[in-house]
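Batch manifest, entry 17 of 40.
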Amino acid sequence: MIGSPRVHHRVADSTNERARELAARGAPHGTVVTADEQTAGRGRQGRSWLAPAGDAVLMSVVLRDLDERFPLLPLAAAVAVAEACEALAPVRCEIKWPNDVWIERRKVAGILVEGRPADGWAVLGVGVNVRGAPEELDATAASLSPDLTVQSALQAVLEALVRWLGREGDQVLAAWRERDALLGARVRWADGAGTARGIDDSGSLLVDTDAGLVALGAGEVHLES
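Output type: structure tokens
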């Protein structure tokens, strides 16, 4: 089960921070923390996660009993969120490596995995712009529909996570590859640039560079303008 028990905050600093505290105190697998608004939401690479108050899914789930599929957790979560978004609105979602969900090259959802696998738990944070996107990110952010409710979107995401977090690795990889937003595109990162060639079986991004094929296991890549 994912989604019970549920702890809801009208305002929280970060649902991931609150979920981490619960996990460290022994909260069971599937515990979910939600909020109407975050004051210090976090994204990947230490960035802030901005979302309009009351118009976005802001949630974090405590996960336990992690097995060999844990390294693919971010990819599985991205597939689940993309599938949920498509079930809610007439959109086509793609995934920018490793787990940003895009609609027409604009970010509608982000995922952040934190935790202590050695201690048997992780926290999966998900943010989805449902009814609107932050005005300051209007050029780069997307949302689903002003006619949706955040509760319906939350339920769709939870149901999709239940379906996908238990899948075998080959199923996750195949589904992720079908939504690969970077395949064949020119990308750059801190130490280089090249053409994205998909992901390998570990989930690393393969990039064809002047020096040959490289595999990026972590970090941030950007489309070349």
